[in-house]
Amino acid sequence: MGFKANKNVIILSLAFLFIFLGFGSVQQYVTVFFSDMGKANVGFWSLILIYGFFGLFNPMAATFIPKYGAKVSMIVGSIFYSLYIFALLNKSILIVYVSSALLGIGASLLWMGQNSYIIRMSDRKDYGKNSGMFFNLNSIGPVIGVILLGYLIKEYSFNIPFLVYAILSLIGFFLLFKLKKLKDYKSENKFKLIKKAIKSKLLLSFSTIWIVVNLLFALSIGMIPIEIKNRLGIEYIGLLASAVFLIPVIFSYFFGNLSDKIGRKPMIVSIYIITLLTLILLYVNKSNLVLIFGAILLSLGHSVTRIINSPLIGDLSNKKNLESLAALFWVVQDLSIVIFLMLNSFIKTNLIYLIFIAILVICLLIILPLFKYSLEELRLKISKEIK
């Protein structure tokens, strides 16, 4: 019997399509927005606050979801995406920083809720397919939005386009109310389980995958947009950044389905290879053509990593410890983004790529010993450690 699309996964995907049609597009221009005001570091620190609070509040989200459900969690978290865009229009640095922190808290609820919801709605054999479908539909909004936003900004400056995009994010907020409410929350995922997850050497070693994942993401929202603007023009940010979202539209379901068939390990290996090649290419970048190709390769690597995120969490967890594992992995992801953005804000030369290559090699050495185990063996070991 063939794979049948899950109605609630489609609704979830469409909701995220609109949320990130708004925020995902605007995020690509945050550093440029403040750079034009002569305050480039404000853009970097806004993003640092978002992902810093995102990481710090994931453990809180892991206790919120079992009590109130993933649907409520996502509804509460999604409202802060529009509020953040409205705050940018105010241009008060204090208000921008406060809204950045609130968005980080909201993001922890939204993405932890998404992880919990899509895994609990899916059969284990369909984790990759449903995740692929989610990112396939979810990425359509930013593809359209980020291209159009570049031309709108060139024509009308930032205020009117940002206002329109804040309203578009609100549509996603309302769509989340259409989701079926899940009742399967027999979890005991309180701080006790989260503390056990944090102390697990096995999980900490495995979580280095997400450090590598976010090397590329930090570049795509930090240094690369400024470099594109300086060398090609502001409208090209939208054209090249759209590749970050266009490739998932084309390949998300394919990669997700492929990971169900061949397993996650080959996909993990491909992440390391693509990331290393991208960093090398950007380091030797001497021409606009190399910059463009590097940005496209970056988007391919980012696409693969996003798609196997939820399936990997599902593979390694059970109903009891799902949110605890997700919390740890999201903390690692978000705090690594914070560190990389901070490095980006201080080091705006090619040296940053060499530093990132060194980090990738260290992460690879940490995770290699785990490759001797199957994911099922790892899941059983983790279940014994976190119970």
In the predicted model, the low-confidence regions spanning at least 5 consecutive residues are none
Find the structural class using helix and strand composition. Answer: mainly alpha
Main β-sheet, in a few words? none
* Strand content bin: under 5%
Helices and strands, in N-to-C order?
Answer: HHHHHHHHHHHHHHHHHH
C-alpha end-to-end distance: 36 Å
Per DSSP E runs of 2 or more residues, the count of β-strands stands at: 0
* CATH-defined topology: Growth Hormone, Chain: A
CATH class descriptor name: Mainly Alpha
Features:
18 helices, 387 residues, mainly alpha, Growth Hormone, Chain: A
Task: Please provide a written account of the structure.
The protein is mainly α. The protein has one domain: MFS general substrate transporter like domains (Growth Hormone, Chain: A), CATH 1.20.1250.20. Helix content is 83%, strand content 0%. The chain is built from 18 helices and no strands. The protein has helices at residues 7-27, 30-36, 40-68, 70-90, 93-120, 127-138, 140-156, 159-175, 191-199, 201-206, 208-221, 223-231, 235-262, 264-283, 288-316, 322-346, 351-367, 375-385. Helix 4 runs antiparallel to helix 5. The two termini are 36 Å apart. The model has no long low-confidence stretch (mean pLDDT 81).
Q: Would you kindly provide a brief summary of this structure?
A:
By secondary structure, the chain is mainly α. It has helices at 7-27, 30-36, 40-68, 70-90, 93-120, 127-138, 140-156, 159-175, 191-199, 201-206, 208-221, 223-231, 235-262, 264-283, 288-316, 322-346, 351-367, 375-385.
